[in-house]
Specification:
Low-confidence stretches: none
Number of domains: 1
Helix content: 40-55%
Largest sheet: 8 strands, parallel, barrel
CATH class: Alpha Beta
Mean pLDDT: 97
Structural class: alpha/beta
Strand order of the largest sheet: 1-2-3-4-5-6-7-10
Number of strands: 10
Shape: globular
Distance between the termini: 12 Å
Strand content: 15-25%
Number of helices: 9
Radius of gyration: 18 Å
CATH superfamily: Divalent-metal-dependent TIM barrel enzymes
């Protein structure tokens, strides 16, 4: 398993690997476009080649792609729901060109829909996104912190969606430790929490871990990341999470602030041993 963090692509995606290497990353997460919206930068053959060369030179073993923030499959606005389908497919194709292993996405909000209605709409949209897709990058659903009617805050809901979509390229989930803590999964009670996740989802469906401590208390429903050991999840829990990730060969990606992310990476490497 590899350890890394989210990296800026300012100036071009090919600049990310050297930035990642400077922080001690073995893996990295990137956006391939602005997360707020707008046209995606073209991935020309020259850009792709330079990116892959830089990954090799800087010993970046795995790249994962985070989709833009505006994805919302259950939106009742056709422009947003159709746009979400198109962007997911485009990100999968772009990630495949770059040689990225995974694309991860949030599901969006149920809005004015009931949970069953929102689930059905999300399942339909994911099926459309993957229809005819034969690229190498795999799609993962990321769990949410659970504010408002945001979807994917329980692993049972995500499991239902995975089962219903039933596509070989939707391979599992990216589990965010802070989001799960905020939605009521207590990593400090490690064995019981792991058993709960296993019963709801199945541990084999965990393909990637976003490793973030929490500024807010258990079940706060708030998305507030903190540096490892400086938040309310605590260092001991992350030692257990890292050992689990190592045993299952699951890469860990930090999404903490750049000021101390290097120290976070070093700490996780120490836990890995």
């Amino acid at each position: 398993m590899y350890i890394g963090c989210h990296i800026s692509i300012a100036g071009g995606v090919f600049n990310a690997p050297a930035r990642a290497s400077e922080l001690g990353c073995e893996a990295m997460q990137i956006f391939t476009r602005s997360p707020q919206g707008g046209k995606a930068p073209e991935l020309t053959p020259e850009v792709i080649l330079k990116f892959k060369e830089q990954c090799q030179e800087n010993n970046i073993e795995m790249t994962v792609v985070h989709t833009p923030y505006y994805i919302n499959f259950a939106s009742t606005n056709p422009r947003i729901s159709h746009g979400s389908v198109a962007v997911i497919r485009d990100e999968l194709e772009r990630a495949s060109l770059l040689g990225a292993k995974y694309v991860m996405t949030h599901l969006g909000s149920a809005g004015e829909l009931s949970e069953p209605e929102a689930n059905a709409k999300t399942i339909e949209a994911l099926k459309k996104s993957l229809d005819g897709y034969i690229g190498s990058a795999e799609l993962l659903i990321e769990n949410a912190a659970g504010s408002g009617k945001i979807m994917g805050s329980t692993f049972s809901q995500i499991a239902e969606i995975l089962k219903a979509v039933n596509h070989e390229k939707l391979t599992g989930i990216c589990i965010d430790t802070q989001h799960s803590f905020a939605s009521g999964y207590d990593w400090r009670d490690f064995e019981n929490t792991l058993a709960k996740i296993d019963s709801e989802l199945g541990l084999s469906n965990i393909k990637l871990i976003h490793c973030n401590d929490s500024k807010t208390e258990l079940a706060s429903r708030k998305d507030r990341h903190e540096h490892i050991g400086k938040g309310l999840i605590g260092e001991a829990a992350f030692e257990n999470i890292t050992k689990f990730a190592k045993e299952k060969n699951i890469t860990m990606i930090l999404e903490t602030e750049y000021d101390f992310v290097k120290e976070d990476i070093e700490l996780l490497k120490k836990f890995r041993g």
